[in-house]
Write a structure and sequence with these properties.
Layout lengths: L2 H54 L3 H43 L1 H18 L2 H38 L1 H20 L1 H10 L3 H43 L4 H13 L6 H13 L3 H25 L8 H15 L1 H20 L7
Length: 354
Amino acid sequence: MSQLSVFLQKTITSLLWIGGAVVFFKWLLAPLLPFLLALALSSMLEPAVQRLRRRMKVKRSFAAGLVTTALLLVAGGGVAVLLAQLTMELRQWSQRLPELVEGFPAVWNRMLDRIELWYVASPAFLRSALDLLAGQLMEEGPGLAGAAGAWLMGAASSLLSALPDVGLFLVTTVLAVYFTSLRYPDILAFLKRQLPEAWQAKCRNAAQCFRSTILKWMRAELLLILATFAILLGGFLWMRLDYALLAAVFIALVDALPVLGTGTVLCPWALGCFLTGSAERGLALLALYAVGLIVHSLLEPRLLAGQADLPPITALLAMYLGFQFLGVGGMVLLPIVLLLLKQFQDAGVIHLWK
């Protein structure tokens, strides 16, 4: 076979894989996600199901139902309490949002007064730049405040309207976990029969690689998110902030995004507090950011030990491309996909690059 034929074959194969991946992630992932999650959860529950069957000498249906019910009760109970509190705080916050928007001009004027005091005390060579900045803020500030308030109201309304879809997704996932766990060996055997024999060994290696690396990485990231959430919630409660749970959940989710961190929210928030005269709250937010950064730096090497991470520039590229093609969810999904491809490449399952 000539080099041109080999090149064309590899190019066509790569284009087909890329096209299949785009179709899957853009149109098939969302409707299939409950069943893919059920398959992954059943895979993690399978060792416990087999152990229970051996010890209690019971049928698979009983062991699978018992283990799945125990998991859902523990996880579902905690999530239900969290969602109930979060929904209550979100509803209260959405009701107070018009009042907060109306009070924004007063806060804005106090901020400008404080900037004016700093302006008077600043060196002469900085005043021209500050004059230009102040003029732009005076012109665009009220419009930006109104746009921000409208966006927040729309986001809150969209979130509340999405709750029925979220409920349907959760119910479907729970039922799918039960049904998948009951027939997990049969489902795996069926999927295996659909693959060519030449692919079965590679798929087996890919599944082992996924289980040994990506699942561990996801578990480590989840623990880091929970640690960050606990630190933020404890700090916000100690500061007696309103909607502490809502703020802690939001910042923890921002921290979960690649490249970004808690400082993306806490540092501008602290700066705003200093500009409005709330120096104590600003210092508390900076201290909270420092504590979270230290804990994160201490935990991450231990939790992610042995896990190959993506270079920062690759993670940033993956976030941007994921957002462009798949929206906000792609910012999280595409870096995970790239990490999975890197693990497959290192394990010899695929050969995409040299």
